[in-house]
Amino acid sequence: MKKLIISLVLVFGVFSVFSMGAFAAEDGASLYKERCAGCHGADGAKSTPVKGTSQEIEKKLKGYLDGSYGGTKKAVMAGIVKKLSDEQIKLVSAHIATFN
Ligand code: HEC
């Protein structure tokens, strides 16, 4: 019985580590930390500040893609947004909205 409990704990332990890893890859906070925080800061206040509702951020990010939004350094952002999927744009926008 003791052995069974130990193996169950091990199996679930390994499983939860794996599922956490898979989840982190598609998590807005981790995406932001990995790909955006270097320039915009951990809370979006550094260099060009990022701030707004999830919809506003999403609109700006998509605007960088289709050229309808951006300032003098828009090429920087266009290159970054190009590497994000629609789903990742949504996730990271929702995360930025929590900075308000
Ligand atoms: C290499 C530095 C760099 C990285 C990395 C970066 N940005 Fe930017 N970001 C900029 C610069 C520079 C601007 C201003 C561009 C312009 O002139 O429009 C900007 C502008 C923005 C804006 C528009 C701000 C506004 O209100 O006009 C948003 C939103 C944004 N970034 C989100 C992100 C997100 C989300 C990520 C990560 C996926 C990211 N950025 C990664 C440099 C960076």
Automatic annotation (TrEMBL):
Region forming the signal peptide: 1-24
Keywords in alphabetical order: Heme, Iron, Metal-binding, Signal
Domain Cytochrome c: start-end pairs: 23-100
Pfam (any one): Cytochrom_C
Domain of life: Bacteria
UniProt GO MF annotations: electron transfer activity; heme binding; metal ion binding
Protein name, entry field: Cytochrome c
Organism: Desulfovibrio litoralis DSM 11393
